[in-house]
What does this fold into?
Amino acid sequence: MALFVVPLLGLVARTPWNRVGELLTSPVVGDALRLSLTTSLAASAIAAVLGVPLAWLLARAEFPGRSIIRGLVTLPLVLPPVVGGAALLFALGRRGLLGEPIYEASGFLLPFSLWGVVVANTFVAMPFLVITVEGALRNLDPRYEGAAATLGAGRWTVLRRVTLPLIAPSLAAGMVLTWARAFGEFGATITFAGNLQGRTQTLPLAVFVALENNRDAAVAISLMMVVIALSVLVLLRDRWWKAL
Amino acid sequence: MARPRRIAIPVALIAMVTGCSVNPSGHREELLVFAAASLRDAIGQIDEIFEVEYPEFDVLVNLASSSSLREQILEGAPADVFASANTANMDQVMEAGGVVGVPTIFVRNLLQVAVPAGNPAGITGLADFANPNLLIGLCAEEVPCGSFGRQALANAAVSASIDTNEPDVRALLTKIEAGELDGGIVYVTDVLAAGGGVEGIDIPEDLNVVAEYPIVALRGGTNPEAAAAFVAFVISAPGKAVFADFGFQSP
It folds into this structure.
């Protein structure tokens, strides 16, 4: 318990309370907050859209190499974020494996753009969603779906009216975890998307840069991030935690 | 008595491992040097020569942007020596009473425009930095090479279209070398260090900015004699010759 509380106390102790208002209303913070919220929410949404079908495949379908796929999907969880960012750069950068042909053909570039931040965030955070939803699908009592089928429901109806509602708490919890991870992402973002105020400088990057010469601002922004994250996680009610 | 034996083996292993790490090479004393990122290769060589001259010392180098190092020192890091890429960071450490004696400027450095090998974007000078179609990187304004770079651009009256502010000069160099950026402003020594991976385009003398690197022994260190010996070696003629090999200028 102390392991989690003491660093927070350290942060609170260093906060320049008389300057917090002024520090948090600067344009740097405003831009970073806007970017952080947009990119983390986008990453969460994309993770859900891509992750639920993937989780379904991993939980329900039997195919050779399934455990390898599962391993690959959870790899970003153990990969150091900077390594993840470097890998994204080698794959999707201007001279990247896929990035180069895409750039030559269309001029589209992910690094140094907002979408680069979204991709970096999705890459590191999506495993949380896939794991949570896969777990929920595995633990689902198959008799509910079986009962719906015997009552005449088609596959799509079963999915829509039985399966998804039953895993909804887990899906919600998974999306919140995904959001939280994306919100705090630093290494992959700075390595892949770069660092530019208003375009790619999210809150964690702003803190990192502020630490260089404006410790007060760094502490104030850090505290703000803690408050935001804590509020969201506390709102994640008990029954959803059980669903994780 | 199975229990004591079950515990004994892991404990013995732990003791062996910690014993090993406490005394890796006999009884060498550790010297912790904090050096600016641009000093990476030169300090590596200095480190080797110093350890040959003074085999009783084991030099550990922490490389990062000078502002990052300054923060760590002010927060109490037990560094013995600090070599900064500008005097502003050193002044802050001095003001906090962290230095022993007075810092000495041991080298100077100049800025240079760096482009990937082959110069694919055809950059010819600072004026090209205003082109929004090019991917241009600088160091973050808070670190020395970032503030110097912006000074040079101001000297040239160029309003640059920047795409990223990298946390230190080597991070910037890596992205340029990888071709992910079309150009950036780094030190002359960084272009040299990158070998053929990066090409340098000179910045005219009247626009360029001279970086002066001070070095000093720190009060918070654990080994003052080693620190003094290291600083003395760096500012000596043979020490300066090493830096000259890497493209640094004498002060």
Notes: Residues 2-22 of chain B form the longest helix (21 residues). The radius of gyration of chain B is 21 Å. Chain B has two domains: 26-107+212-245, 109-210.
